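Changelog entry: the Histone-lysine N-methyltransferase SETMAR record was regenerated in this release. Current contents:
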Amino acid sequence: QYSPDNVAGADGALDPTDITFPGCSCLTCAAPACSCLRHGENYSSLCIKPTDDEEGFARPVFECNTMCRCGESCPNRVVQRGLQFRLEVFQTAKKGLGVRTLEFIAKGRFVCEYAGEVLGFNEARRRIQAQTPKDSNYIIAVREHLHNGQIMETFVDPTHIGNVGRFLNHSCEPNLFMVPVRVDSMVPKLALFAATDISAGEELCYDYSGRFHNIPVTNRVPETSEESNIPKKPCYCDARMCASFLPWDSSLFSPP
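Regenerated structure tokens:
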């Protein structure tokens, strides 16, 4: 079933349609006066602003929401406007279905969301453990490290309900990167932005591991003995620095 937005999962743990954020009272939103921009400006000419390398971390992104006084033309409303480019799902040579763009996409532009059922940890783990080695896994686990040391987890499963994002393939040198963007509540939209200028006809890919634009390759955590015994799926991204296998996360496979 196609859905452009996240929906509540069968476990009902989180409802992404809940509106819990108060709105700003701005007619023209600008940092730092706008309460939605207390962390700084998010966008410039529809392009996401790059993280300051000196900070060493990504600033949280909050867009203006349903309760705000500003209108739909507010420059702090980008991801919520939805798909703005013509994309095509196509059959790749080795990777099954993939997605390519039919028009040029400039670096920093929002491309699409990875939307699906928003699950709690227990339901996400139940679904993962019910899969066979032949099943395709669409469940994504996004972990955000907060300033107080806590980790906020978001699990999205577009297996049965989702959007075009479910057909995006992995690449070890991708042209997209994912940013959790919040609009109406703390349940984020998993937004994919262009990491570079992308030409018409190019396949769109992101790094399933989340390392791209986060942790340098040299800082990869060594495999545990448990992980080394798991049969991994080969990677066919053909990147110069290809890791040979698709990223794998053991946390959802571990027993309670």
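Confidence is low (pLDDT under 50) at residues 217-226.
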